[in-house]
Design a protein that fits this description.
The chain is an alpha/beta fold. It is about 45% helix and about 15% strand. It binds 2-phosphoglycolic acid.
């Protein structure tokens, strides 16, 4: 299975100068610190960075000659055309910036921007229409976890895919290469608290089964874990075959920790090959 490690920079870093410094660290480490014959250089684990919208073009340009992909963190639900949507960034504008993927449905967007099921179906459709891959983020809150509602919550969140296909069955072929699911329990994001690997593994198994029931092209969909992944716990997550990689927030803001997490998934994958 192809592993993925994706850095979600959120509203970081503060300045374009800091963005340059972080990218330089990352690219230099990839070019010089990885010996030519290691698994990382053979690109077993794909890397992707999701900077904030204002930095998308600069990051895409800087990463153009590297193996690292660039993603947006969101796109406008009003992406069908240009127009009077102040503050929005369309799927077309994101694609034009050089990004090839977008995150969608991150819990911070669901929480602070009231992102709804209906708007996510629209965003998915717009992203795929512009040939952008989608990293669809799902996950339960602490209360839902305590009430043992995790699977119910994620089934509802995953049903955006089913609803999209009901509206636009022609998109079915796009989904095999252009959909990644990121399971991120809200209570684990930025808190240092993580579920056990066994819990994540079981939930991932459920996610894989659920999306496989939607259509043939979503069989074998990549499912990443996100929420307080760091250098110390990455090995344990990487060792579980149900966990295909990580969506990393805080630890993606330093090249050293981001690449250490990527290496954990490389090592695990290499052993499986
Ligand atoms: P975290 O964030 O790694 O800082 O917990 C993950 C995310 O929100 O994608």
């Amino acid at each position: 299975m192809q592993a993925w490690v994706i850095g979600n920079w959120k509203q970081n870093p503060a300045t374009s100068r800091d963005v340059d410094a972080l990218l330089n660290d990352l690219v230099t480490a990839l070019e010089t610190q990885v010996p030519a014959d290691t698994a990382l250089s053979k690109n077993r684990c794909k890397l992707m960075i999701a900077p904030s919208c204002i930095h998308l073009a600069a990051v895409s340009t800087r990463l153009k000659d590297s193996s690292v992909l660039c993603a947006a963190q969101n796109i406008s639900e009003h992406s069908a055309s240009t127009g009077a949507y102040t503050g929005d960034c369309s799927a077309q504008q994101v694609a034009d910036s050089g990004a090839t993927w977008t995150l969608l449905g991150h819990s911070e967007r669901r929480q602070y921007h009231k992102e709804s099921h209906h708007s996510l179906v629209k965003k998915l459709s717009h992203a795929l229409a512009q040939n952008l891959g989608v990293v669809l983020c799902i996950g339960e809150t602490q209360t839902q976890y305590d009430d043992k509602q995790t699977l119910e919550v994620i089934d509802t969140q995953l049903s955006v895919i089913k609803d999209l296909l009901a509206q636009q069955p022609e998109l079915v072929s796009s989904l095999s290469e252009q959909l990644i699911i990121a399971y991120e329990p809200v209570w684990a994001i930025g808190t240092g608290k993580v579920p056990t690997v066994e819990e994540v593994s079981k939930t991932h198994e459920h996610i894989k089964q659920t999306v496989a029931e939607f259509t043939k092209t979503t069989e074998g969909t990549t499912v990443l874990y996100g929420g307080s992944v760091n250098m110390a716990n990455a090995d344990a997550f990487a060792a579980d075959p149900m966990i295909d990689g990580a969506l990393v927030g805080g630890a993606s803001l330093k090249a050293e920790s981001f690449l250490a997490i990527a290496n954990a998934f490389n090592q695990a994958n290499t052993e499986l090959v």
